[in-house]
Design goal:
heterodimer; A: alpha/beta; D-Maltodextrin-Binding Protein, domain 2; 5-stranded mixed β-sheet; about 15% strand; B: MetI-like fold; 4-stranded antiparallel β-sheet; two-stranded antiparallel ribbon; 8 strands; about 65% helix
Chain lengths: ~350, ~375
């Protein structure tokens, strides 16, 4: 029903909005409203999940907070809208949300033909499989004949069919569910022998939903590249630049060793790179170029943290998800996280 | 004359508004960089569909996926309508039973089921099925190749060969013969007042030739039986728990409404009719069949039509249980292609077509059974 409503809203919004979109229109709307509306997952531990007080946590959520901190100087000026995998693009297209930060994989089709653009990669992920330990499965290639629970409306289902075909697992059967919660509960109820989604999602689900996490194993194969990142509607280059650089600022901060804990001391650092990033040097106001205040990056780091802070807090080895940095380590430490220079 | 002018003006305004909406939408879709059109129906889908009547392969197109979805919607709709009608009629009559216990149980059924949202019932049934049934490797063995487990009901499938098609043909011919016999019997009753026996001869005409043909061809019956593999039983046919959930949910829910319609229809026939039938010496069964139901049907059919429409439309809740009906499949399509408007138009076209067909059929039937005034 909600989907129909959104689609109807698309039609009406499309019919009412006269003329083509002007650059900066979305940013103007956000500033006028006084808050950022951010589409997040309905519940994926470590990425976006609300606690019993309704407070959202997770990497995707923190990305939204970082953007709000950059625009308003206040990381709390965000409204979170939980969206299902199916609703998310329509919600973005119709203007119901400003930023989609919902463990969404960046693909060519989505970038080119769905009226949206991705701004960067917050998390390098890959699709994996989880099975009950008692089945004794060691590799995803042994899954011929198994029933595999999968959520619909994602790249996951496409990767799954490609993988099954490429490896001749013709007797395996996908059981498709609309919501991730349905797929997960069906898997743990024993409807399927395997469950597939992004490896981070598997770790998250296992820590949160399994009665006994040790009864389940995540198989070693990753069958796809899943760069997850935030996306915005096409047609607003100003907003695009801000969302993109909010993320880069977090990565750059980690590179310089500027963290949430030490950002105030770092303000007095003589390092010109840090001075540029934190907006201390008035002659080198990076914020102005983005249409923001000089301390935009300082606010991000102070209120949200650098990329490493956010990672460790939400999904790192000390959290129930227990995910090593791996591909998400800085480029200088063998990972893929790399930010163009803030200068 | 004036009214014609007003109507013409109204029509012109309507056309203008529709034109404005359509052109503006197209314009804005383009401005937002959204592609539109139905060309995606011919492109490879790559999506998995768990429950299909016709063969499905992820290499097939979105157009075929749409067709698969329509068939799944029709499957649950048609079987659901038949079963809901049967169950609803039984319960409706049970509520009028002179047996206190039966009547009360039927009342409780109706009042409980129709006052709980269908969505909740579906979630409940699916969770119930998922948690109560044993796991795939330790099924309930019903025997003769029938198994029941979390993957649903698994049964042996007849391997079809030419003999079975011939038997099918014979069965079809017998069906025609049976109809002809019944028509003859009716005519004879009107002409002579003596009613020839109908039930036994009908069954005989229907079954005997088919069985004879089957035996004559050496009774070929080879079955594809499910076999245990590492993860589950594979082979034979199966009815998944998703389909069962949706079917059972829709039948139970709609039957509670149909029961009330049937009850009201029967109550609408005055008690004098029952007494008159009794005075003529008709048995209780005959009274119900020949006197009450034909009159009650006139009251029952119009609201029944809306229940049938509701059942088909409610089947769109199937996606909650993971049953791939047309809505679920078009949702997937929408998400993989980004063509939200087009996918929703396709869904609307399906429901509109099915609903109008049901309405047409029921209206035709309604006219046929309507009181013929002389």
């Amino acid at each position: 029903m909600k989907k129909l409503a959104i689609a109807a809203a698309t039609v009406v919004a499309g019919a009412l909005a006269a003329g083509p979109a002007l650059a900066g229109k979305d940013l103007d709307t956000i500033k006028k409203r006084g808050s950022l509306v951010c589409g997040v997952n309905t519940g994926l531990a470590g990425f976006s999940i609300a606690d019993s007080q309704g407070r959202w946590t997770g990497i995707d959520v923190d990305v939204c907070r970082a953007v709000a901190a950059a625009i308003f100087g206040d990381a709390n000026k965000v409204q979170f809208k939980p969206t299902s995998a199916q609703q998310r693009f329509t919600a973005l297209q119709s203007g119901e949300i400003d930023v989609l930060s919902r463990n969404t994989t960046w693909t060519l089709t989505r970038d080119a033909a769905q009226g949206m653009v991705f701004t960067g990669v917050t998390f390098y992920d890959g699709q994996g499989f989880m099975v009950a330990k008692k089945l004794g499965v060691k590799s995803a290639k042994e899954l011929d004949g198994a029933e595999i629970c999968v959520q619909s409306g994602t790249t996951t289902e496409l990767n799954l069919t490609d993988f099954l075909k490429a490896n001749n697992l013709s007797k395996a059967k996908a059981i498709v569910f609309e919501k991730i919660e349905e797929a997960v509960s069906a898997f743990f109820a024993g409807r399927c022998q395997a469950y597939t989604t992004d490896a981070s999602g598997l770790a998250s689900t296992r820590s949160k939903d399994a009665k006994n996490p040790d009864d389940y194993v995540i198989l070693p194969e990753l069958i796809s590249k899943e760069p997850l990142g935030p996306a915005i509607r096409r047609g607003d280059e100003e907003l695009f630049a801000i969302v993109k650089w909010a993320l880069y600022a977090m990565v750059e901060a980690e590179e310089y060793g500027v963290s949430r804990a030490n950002v105030d001391q770092m303000k007095t650092s003589p390092n010109p790179g840090i001075k540029r990033l934190l907006g201390v040097d008035e002659k080198n106001d990076m914020g102005k170029l983005l249409g923001l205040k000089a301390d935009w990056a300082y606010q991000i780091i102070k209120q949200v943290g650098n990329y490493g802070d956010v990672y460790e807090r939400n999904v790192g080895p000390k959290t129930p998800l227990k995910l090593e940095r791996g591909l998400n380590a800085l480029w200088s430490k063998g990972g893929l996280q790399y930010a163009p220079p803030v200068r | 004359m004036r009214s014609i002018i007003y109507q013409a003006l109204f029509l012109a305004a309507l056309v203008f508004v529709v034109w404005l909406l359509v052109t503006n939408t197209i314009e804005n879709l383009r401005a937002r960089g959204l592609k539109s059109g139905f060309d995606f129906l011919n492109s490879r889908s790559g999506i998995p569909i768990s429950d299909t009547i016709i063969d499905w392969n992820p290499d097939d197109t979105f157009g075929r996926a749409y067709f698969v979805g329509i068939l799944n919607t029709l499957r649950v709709g048609i079987i659901g309508i038949v079963l809901a009608t049967i169950l609803g009629t039984i319960i409706g009559i049970a509520r009028l039973s002179s047996n206190w216990l039966v009547a009360k149980l039927a009342s409780i059924y109706v009042e409980t089921i129709r006052n709980v949202p269908l969505l909740l019932q579906l979630i409940f049934i699916y969770a119930f099925v998922g948690n109560v049934l044993p796991d795939q490797l330790n099924p309930i063995v019903i025997g003769a190749g029938f198994y029941l487990n979390k993957s649903g009901l698994i049964f042996p499938l007849l391997k079809l060969d030419t003999a079975h098609y011939i038997v099918g043909g014979v069965l079809l011919a017998s069906l025609v013969a049976m109809l002809i016999y019944n028509r003859w019997a009716k005519r004879r009753q009107y002409a002579t007042g003596v009613a020839p026996k109908r039930l036994l001869p009908s069954l005989g005409i229907l079954i005997v030739p088919a069985v004879a043909a089957f035996l004559a061809m050496g009774a070929p019956a080879e079955f594809d039986v499910a076999a245990k593999t590492r993860f589950r039983f594979i082979g034979g046919g199966s009815i998944g728990p998703e389909f069962l959930t949706v079917l059972v949910g829709l039948v139970i829910y709609t039957a509670s409404f149909i029961a009330e319609i049937v009850r009201s229809g029967i109550l609408a026939v005055s008690y004098g009719q029952t007494e008159a039938a009794g005075a003529l010496g008709l048995t209780r069964g005959q009274t119900l069949r020949l006197v009450l139901l034909p009159q009650a049907l006139r009251v029952i059919i119009p609201p029944m039509t809306s229940q049938y429409l509701n059942l088909v439309k409610n089947s769109s809740l199937a996606l909650i249980a993971g049953y791939p009906d047309v809505v679920a499949i078009e949702n997937m399509t929408m998400n993989q292609t980004g063509r939200a408007l087009e996918a929703i138009l396709l869904i609307m076209a399906v429901y509109l077509t099915i609903s109008l067909s049901i309405s047409l059929a029921m209206n035709y039937y309604n006219k046929r059974i309507a009181l013929k005034e002389r």
